[in-house]
Amino acid sequence: MKKYILMGYCSLAFCTLLSAQSNLVNFKKIKELGGIEEYLYQPNGMNILLLQDNASPVATVQIVYRVGSKHEVLGNTGSTHLLEHLMFKGTPTFNKKNGNTITDVLQNTGAQLNATTWYDRTNYFETLPSDKIELAIQIEADRMRNSLLLKEDKEAEMTVVRNEFERGENNPNALLDKEIWASAYVAHPYHHSTIGWKSDIENAPIEVLKNFYNTYYWPDNATLTIIGDFRKENVFALIEKYFGKITKAPNVMPQPYTEEPQQYGPRKITVKKPGELGVVNKAYKIPGALHEDLPALNILAQIIGSGPSAILNKTFVDTRLGIYSYASATNFKEVGLFTIGVGFPVASKHEDIDAKISEVVAKIQKEGVSQDEVNRVVAKISAQTILARDGSGVIASALNEAIASGDWTDYITGVDRLKKVTPADVLRVANKYLVEDQSTTGYFIPKQAGAQNQNTAKANNYMPENGPFYYRHPENEHAHEENTPASSSLKNKEEEMISVENLIEKSASVFKREKVSGIDVVSVKTSAKDFVTVAASISLGNYASETKNDVIPALTASMLSKGTTLNDKFKFSEKLQKLGVTLNVNASTFKINIGFKCLKKDLDQVIALLAEELRNPLFDAKEFENLKQQFIGNTQQDLNDPGERGSIALSQAIYPKGNPNYSLSVEDNITNIKNATLDEVKAFHKKYFGTASMRLVIVGDTEGANLNASLKKSFKNWNGGVTEKLKFEEASKANAKTEIVVIPEKPSAELFIGQFTGLKRADADYIPFYIGNYTLGAGFAGRLMQTVRDVDGLTYSISSGIGGNIETGGYWYVNASFNPNLFQKGLDATMVQVDKWVKNGITAEELENKKTNLIGSFKVGMSTTNGMARTILSFIERGLEPNYIDQYPKDIEKATLQQVNDAIKKYIQLDKMIIIKAGSLDK
């Protein structure tokens, strides 16, 4: 009897475990490398990658489909990307009618979710609290085969995707890049960009999309990746539960077989549109990512185009022929392009820049590169490979590209491939692939100077990051993106460091805080292995309110990387490059921001280099004049940017001149740059750089890193800096007004709506108002996205936020992009939602959802060392203790519905709306 009972009865947990074990035969282990295990789920052929790390209660679930824009043909270009959007629209289980859309249920857990489409693949992913893994797996299994793909959803989403296309057309580099690919590859399906041709976006029938979906979206064409905090047996049980119902594809999935024919001579294309800088981009055909020559080509691209020591930088930027330069080798599965580009003032001729690029190539083909150059690049990439493994989301993203290239193990072995490259290999690939007859050259020719159209033009302070211009292929992420303000120029947006997507509740946090050589230092040990992240800042006191040249802080910060009294800029950058480290030092008018990530073993060297840069800048006169030209060239580009122009017009309509949040016009800004002197820079450095208000946070594998000893050695006897507080006159709410900023030939226009609130971060109303605004316009689950984008289909990007320096009294704004012909309709639809929000407030259900969302995303965002370091720094800058990290979720939780709705009504007045329209709009 006892034996019968034992055999016939078990606890629920034990039965679940037995069930999981009984199904383990369905999971065939293929291989294991670098801690990643690969399995084949035999019932339906789905690949599985598992990387377990239980140190933080966060995980990323990602599914990669081996289908991208290369699988499309004429008539359905852009189908993969449009499907990416539609697969967020719901299934019979998760949909709007049920009140549980995919974006709602995921975002309400605090998940960071997104999807991206590219030439060889599409991926969907969510990084979320690890106790919500089942939800993520359920959703990914459900939409794999049960996506609704309704005609009405497609019609609404078509205009959303078209607006995304139009936004890309606003960018000269993106536009030129698209034309180069279309000319370089005439037959291979990489010919058309991932987002597709506009007419296909507009006209592709839903039946075409459904057929595409039913052809490629099957488990045997997918890799499911799970990274982070999980138990393998539980994951296997969940995969069995949700994916076990899905069969293999019923038919063979067709694969593109078109090969690019021989190219019999150089090709050239020209794009003429309004702009401020000329661009020459030379592109050479190269093979796919796993080809044996790709490592050498990647190293060549770094030597040519990355950092102060790069050949292009020395040839063009240092000589003032160019404003920026770049080089890159694509790593696509089948074929690709090696590109060399230069942006330059209109005074130069395209033909001269083109010829100079050819001279650079010819010299490399004749003289080759040195062993030291190869070693530096390999050392840099080796270190950066380790440093990049910071959080499950980042690892998933990198694995995604390796899967797309055809072999996920390249994520682990890629550095070993690089280490085998010799200077002879680099010389060989330069001669083999950088061949004029296999090239396509693109010229972007500015049609007219933007300054001619500046009747209403305004632009913001130019605050560049310290370091070389970085250009990324513009369509690398045609994503269903987490919605953030389109413009980067909402002044001092970086001051609002309490963006809760970047925070985490760390209830058992152990913070060590002490003064070291006059610096306020906070140290936090986390589960990160072998690396640390440092975030620091120096206050500029009352500088923002003084009648001084606003560009001096940014110029000073940028001059720091141009050499020190101990090492010229080449030697200095080479030392950093060998360590794989980028020292980011940039400045607003409020503070100097400092940051880096390095291997723990290198911390002492990096601290020494940081101290050298901060304490002993060379301030070379020639470098200063070069830098001013770069600032002017980059600032001039704002003249043709609707986002920049619109946001500055909004700032100027809200704040009076002299207020720290007021933004200068482009003309004033350029005048400031031209008038800036090296003596002013030196005086600024002498007064404001020092330890008086310097704060530094280090997060990661801090045990044994010996930070304090390094700081004491490198920052000994460094004095200076200011402790004064920012003084300012309180602004007041301005009257309603509408302003139009006309910019010709821009297929996407920008809308800004806003008004002064005066809210400061320390105010009791701040968090209630923050929650209220979050309900209106933050992320996929915000009302604006769910109506103006998802229902009305009028925009790709719409959001609301809190802008300005929130220690001095901020402002509230809405930002959206619209096709000029749909602009008024978009404005009307936006105002319907704003009106409803102000008059009726938010609901109790919305409040609870947003609290769950904010507190969940708190966990997710701070699972990276950078998220934690920046967050703690923002707290101590405001006079709070690091352990406010534990209090913040409680402050969110205790906000009441009455407080939230009262705050909305208190700070937003419908009759005081300032409306800015920027783009190709008729006054």
From TrEMBL:
Q: Which Gene3D superfamilies match?
A: Metalloenzyme, LuxS/M16 peptidase-like (3.30.830.10)
Q: Per UniProt, which keywords does this protein have? A: Signal
Q: Does this entry carry the keyword Cell division?
A: no
Per the database record, which ranges form the Peptidase M16 C-terminal domain? 207-379, 676-854
Q: Which cofactor does it need?
A: Zn(2+)
Q: Does the keyword Transport apply?
A: no
Q: Which PROSITE patterns match?
A: INSULINASE (PS00143)
Record-linked Pfam families: Peptidase_M16 (PF00675), Peptidase_M16_C (PF05193)
Signal peptide positions are: 1-20
InterPro entries per the UniProt record, alphabetical: Metalloenz_LuxS/M16, MPP/UQCRC_Complex, Pept_M16_N, Pept_M16_Zn_BS, Peptidase_M16_C
Q: Where is each Peptidase M16 N-terminal domain found?
A: 50-195, 521-629
The organism's superkingdom is given as Bacteria
Which family does the UniProt entry place this protein in? Belongs to the peptidase M16 family.
Q: What is this protein called?
A: M16 family metallopeptidase
Q: Tell me what organism the protein belongs to.
A: Flavobacterium procerum
